Structure formats: structure tokens, C-alpha cells
UniProtKB/TrEMBL annotation:
Entry keywords, A to Z: DNA-binding, Transcription, Transcription regulation
Keyword Transcription regulation attributed: yes
Domain HTH gntR-type: 7-75
Protein name from the UniProt record: GntR family transcriptional regulator
Record keyword Transcription regulation present: yes
Pfam families, A to Z: GntR (PF00392)
Segments crossing the lipid bilayer: none
InterPro entries, A to Z: Tscrpt_reg_HTH_GntR, WH-like_DNA-bd_sf, WH_DNA-bd_sf
Species of provenance: Pedobacter flavus
């Protein structure tokens, strides 16, 4: 995983975990890598992963079964969507709106690009 300078690493790891859940790679109530395992895989300090896991526990995305490990919460997908939507609306959307205004990009252009993106990346066609 390559980290970007514009966002704290623990938040980027949280995005990674959330993406694994949304893509169905990590299933509801399934065990996830331990703090140490994920730290090794991502080449980060275990304290950074622990901070990520604490954040995700507070958002009810994962939970800790003492002595056993961390697991995906049964309502994780719903909670991930809520968490990520809140972040997107508050952090990313204002800059996005500013750019489409400054660059005079129409919603028709955006829709066409979005449909192309869906087709190329998720094999979804416009119905």
C-alpha cells in the first residue's frame, strides 16, 4: 500500500479496511488480520494500526473479542457506508464542487465520465 502525504496514515489504513469490507473481501463477523499482521503487511508501526482499529471500533465497523482477535461487525457494511459518506460529503465534496465550478464542467460531462468509469472498472452498463 502506498501512503499519500495529504492524509494521516491511520486514516488511510481505515479506508483500506473499509474498502475490503465494501468489496466483500472481508465478510461480516469474519476475523481480520491482527494488529501485528496488518502492520507487517502494510509496513507501518503496530501503534498506527492500533489507532486505526480503535477508530473503527468506535464507528462499530469492527469489534474486539478479547483473547481471540478483531472481527468485522455484523452491521459493518452499513456503518462503513455511513462513515465514508460523512467523510466524503464533509471533506472531498466541497473541493470537488469548487473544481467543477472553476473548470466549468457540466453535470452531463460528469455523468458521461461516471458511466464510463463504472463500465471500465465495475463492468456496469447504463440501463
Amino acid at each position: 500500500m502506498e501512503f499519500k502525504d495529504n492524509k494521516a496514515i491511520y486514516l488511510q489504513i481505515a479506508d483500506y479496511v473499509c474498502e475490503q469490507i465494501l468489496l466483500g473481501k472481508w465478510k461480516d463477523e469474519g476475523k481480520i488480520p491482527s494488529v501485528r499482521e496488518l502492520a507487517i503487511n502494510l509496513e507501518v508501526n503496530p501503534n498506527t494500526v492500533m489507532r486505526t482499529y480503535e477508530l473503527l471500533q468506535n464507528k462499530q465497523i469492527i469489534n474486539n473479542k478479547r483473547g481471540i482477535g478483531f472481527f468485522i461487525d455484523e452491521h459493518a457494511e452499513k456503518n462503513v457506508i455511513s462513515f465514508r459518506k460523512e467523510n466524503f460529503v464533509n471533506d472531498d465534496l466541497p473541493a470537488f464542487f469548487r473544481n467543477i465550478y472553476l473548470l466549468n464542467i457540466s453535470f452531463a460531462e460528469l455523468e458521461a465520465k461516471y458511466q464510463q468509469y463504472l463500465k471500465e472498472n465495475f463492468n456496469v452498463t447504463n440501463s
